[in-house]
Amino acid sequence: MNTNEPLTATGKSGHSLDKHLGNTLRHLRMENGLTIAEVSKRANVSRGMLSKIENGLTSPSLEKLEQLANALGVTLSRLFHDYDTPKAGAQYVPHGEGMEVVRRGTKSGHTYHLLAYDTGPKKLFEPFLISLDEDSEVFDPFEHAGTEFIYMLEGRLEYTVGDEFYILEPGDSLTFDAEQPHRPLAKLTMPIRYLAIIYYDSLDDIQAE
Fold it and tell me: Which residues of the chain are in CATH 2.60.120.10 domains?
């Protein structure tokens, strides 16, 4: 392979690769506190050429890239790190379309809507929208692994954690170690809706649920 030939990208435009290399070189140069003049001298590349490379305006040869990598004290492969790496997308759940799931409180008239269906193999949190209706029963305290965060959206609710009692109104939040006994205790103003987000310390915690 002729190292003096300009690089071309496979699967993406050459412009995209040029921009990636330019951004990476600029980041490494600034991270090391070096000026364009200092790097161009070390790499034996003109300042004008280095400026064009950093701005993605030219396709450098492998030889020039190797000289620049040596000048910055990194390997040539470091310049291509994260290029063409798939980026995870966001998960959008429209209003009213959260998946209704069965939890321990379901049989007591508590409705749980899961707001994130698939968080991958390392699912360490579960966000729920919980609704209580007029017929919701009060059930025995329960505990589980993880840390739980509650954010009150609508209504007024008396909630107990351990030996403490809290009156939750819209805008109030409550965070606690979920291994403590906890439960909604009294429905003070209906309707009642709140977010409950459970964060697990490890996958073992989820599997134990």
Answer: 99-207
